[in-house]
Every structure is written in C-alpha cells, then in structure tokens.
Specification:
Elements lengths: L1 E6 L11 H4 L4 H15 L2 E6 L3 H14 L2 E5 L8 H10 L3 E5 L21 E4 L4 H14 L5
Parallel strand pairs: 1-2, 1-3, 3-4, 4-5
Length: 147
C-alpha cells in the first residue's frame, strides 16, 4: 500500500527559506524521516513536489489509482486554489492537509483553507512533525483497510 506525500510551491527551498518560520530541515531530510515512519507503519511512500498548480493536480489525479492516501502540504495554494480543492474532492482517497507553521497565528489570509473541507483532517504548527502526525492520522483513517 502506497502513500503519496505531496508538497506545493516553495517547499523545495526548505532549509534556506525563512528558517525562523519553516525550520532548518531540508525537504529531503524531512522526506527521509517520513520514509522511515511510513516503513514502520507498513506503507510504501512516494514523494512529489511542484511549484505548479497543474503539476499538483496531475499528481493528485494519478494518486487515485496508485495510492491509498495523500499527505498534502499545498503551501500557498491552500488558501485560494479551488482547482486543487476540486481535484482532492474528485479522487475519493483520503487526503490529510499539513503545514509546517501554525497558519492560524500568521497572516490573516493564511487562516482560510479552501482545501480543508475536502480533506479528512488538517495538522499545522509542528514543523517537520506535522508530516509524521499527518502520516499517523492517515494510517488511522485507513484503519481496517490496512490491517
């Protein structure tokens, strides 16, 4: 059983982009930790990052046939991409929304997530551990299907 970890715009710059907000870990080092946690839970994991809305949508579409669920950090698209929202709604597999920072304690526009209503849950503010928590939440959501 495979899980997709999908990252949106600017997350390829983790480790150098605003470390006071996003931490010093790189996307690769975070992915390495996610990989280990997924393996311990019995999942294969695949990673994808795109700065393009279309790339994210295309990969979500693919996930409906090759993955049992998605851990998604849509970055800034979280706040305004109805196209990504519609893609999540269309694929019929569980998606957990994650964010490194506590989006509710930041800019006003970050407090609104247009994708949250079609995700099975949201986790924010725990740095790289938001991804690990998202993985555990997805595992819980998948429940008996994984046993």
């Amino acid at each position: 059983m495979k899980i997709l970890v999908l990252n949106g715009p600017n997350l390829n710059l983790l480790g150098e982009r605003e470390p006071g907000i996003y931490g010093c870990d790189t996307l690769k080092s975070i992915n390495d930790e996610i990989y280990e946690a997924a393996r311990e839970l019995g999942y294969d994991v695949t990673f994808f990052q795109s700065n393009s809305e279309g790339g994210i949508i295309d990969r979500l579409h693919e996930a409906r046939v090759d993955c049992v669920g998605v851990v998604l950090n849509a970055g800034a698209y979280t706040h305004y991409s109805y196209a990504i929202r519609d893609a999540i709604s269309a694929i019929k597999i569980p998606v957990v929304e994650v964010h490194l920072s506590n989006v509710n304690s930041r800019d006003e526009f970050r407090k609104n997530s247009v994708i949250a209503p079609v995700c099975c849950g949201s986790i924010a503010g725990f740095g790289k551990y938001s991804y690990i928590l998202g993985l555990y939440a997805l595992n819980n959501k998948l429940g008996a299907a994984h046993e």
